[in-house]
Automatic annotation (TrEMBL):
UniProt similarity note: Belongs to the Fur family.
Molecular function terms, GO-annotated: DNA-binding transcription factor activity; transcription cis-regulatory region binding; zinc ion binding
Keyword annotations from UniProtKB, A to Z: Cytoplasm, DNA-binding, Iron, Metal-binding, Repressor, Transcription, Transcription regulation, Zinc
Residues at which Zn(2+) binds: 100, 103, 140, 143
Subunit field text: Homodimer.
Cellular component terms per the entry's GO annotation: cytosol
Hydrolase among keywords: no
Cofactor binding description: Binds 1 zinc ion per subunit.
Domain of life: Bacteria
Location relative to the cell: Cytoplasm
Cofactor names: Zn(2+)
Protein name as it appears in the record: Ferric uptake regulation protein
Length: 150
């Protein structure tokens, strides 16, 4: 996973190329998500942002999150109702998330063949996919090693 500085730089570049505004609030929300060790919930983001911006309210966070998701800079972890930074916003294909249930670490995968198989099967069944989320919940290597040595 890229560091927060790299992710912010990539985000600025992507927003510039797409001609969309990367406002200070959007930047700060992405910075908080990118600096987290796992996913952050919207109200955790709001609590952190409110320390810096007293006027921050839930719509402030949700508008920023909607923008960041739309631009492919952040992914929503459906099972945790949390958000994680995308390490490669230039990648426009589907993705899969490996989520450690112990430490919360999230790793993003790009197994395009998996997405293609699912899309093909859905099409054959006459189903139009609007959004796809694949999350695998388990234990990361660090947590497995910590458990083994405990």
């Amino acid at each position: 996973m890229a560091d927060a500085t790299t992710l912010l730089s990539q985000a600025e570049k992507q927003c510039h190329l797409r001609g969309v505004r990367f406002t200070p609030i959007r930047r700060r929300v992405l910075e908080m998500i990118a600096g987290a060790n796992g996913g952050l919930k919207a109200y955790e983001l709001l609590d952190r942002l409110a320390v810096e911006h007293a006027a921050a309210r839930p719509p402030t966070i949700y508008r920023a999150l909607d923008f960041l998701i739309e631009q492919g800079l952040v992914h929503r972890i459906e099972s945790l109702n949390a958000y994680v930074a995308c390490p490669c916003p230039e990648h426009t294909h589907g993705f899969q998330l490996l989520i450690c249930r112990h430490c919360g670490h999230v790793e993003e995968l790009h197994l395009d063949d998996v997405n293609a198989q699912l899309s093909e099967r859905a099409h054959k069944l006459g189903f139009r996919v609007e959004r796809q989320t694949i999350e695998l919940l388990g234990s990361c290597d660090a947590c497995l090693n910590a458990t083994a040595h405990a």
